[in-house]
Amino acid sequence: MPLELVNRCAICRKQITAFRDTFSEKEYYISGTCQACQDELFGVDPFADIEIDPSTLPTCDKDEPDPFVDEETLIPSTPTTKLLTRIDDLLEEWHLQETPEETILEQIKALVME
After folding, report:
1. H-run or E-run covering 103
2. How many CA atoms lie within 13 Å of 55's alpha carbon, on the beta-carbon side?
3. Are 33 and 14 spatial neighbours (Cβ–Cβ below 8 Å)?
4. Average pLDDT of the chain to the nearest whole number
5. What was the pLDDT predicted at 91?
6. What share of the chain is helix, strand, coil (3-state, %, to 5)?
7. 38: exposed, middle or buried (C-beta count within 10 Å: 0-12, 13-18, 19+)?
8. What band does 71 get if pLDDT is binned at 50, 70 and 90?
9. DSSP of 15-34, one letter per residue?
10. Are the CB atoms for 9 and 34 separated by under 8 Å?
């Protein structure tokens, strides 16, 4: 890389001087863009200057299970993930030759059509 391009924005090629916050600085390492170009690309966060007192935030009960996460796999439990898990189980049965291919395909079709 030519020396004159070091610490220069990948879009406007201006010298990098400073960033508004650590998120913008991290974005520079990802995209190589200066603060002005980041603001143009992503917009300015209207809440960036608001200080939040952590004690005012709601807390969660760590002992209560999250209804949206399967605790065994830590995968979000949605209808799609449940469907994909069931299809994966059916394909495993077919792979182990426990169920004929036609039966597996019929079961997958029935699952998708539900």
Report:
1. helix 101-113
2. 0
3. no
4. 78
5. 81
6. 45, 5, 45
7. buried
8. low
9. BP---SSHHHHHHHHHH---
10. yes
Q: Which residues contact 28 (CB under 8 A, 6 or more apart)?
A: 16, 19, 34, 38
Q: What confidence score (pLDDT) does residue 68 get?
A: 62
- Residue 1: what residue type? M
Report the alpha-carbon distance of residue 45 to residue 53 in Å, rounded: 18
Provide the terminal-to-terminal Cα distance of the chain, rounded to the nearest Å.
56
Kindly give, in sequence order, each residue whose CB lies less than 8 Å from that of residue 97, ignoring residues fewer than 6 positions away.
none
Among residues 42, 6, 51, which one has the least CA distance to residue 23?
Answer: 42
- pLDDT of 70 reads 61
Q: Which amino acid is at 82?
A: K
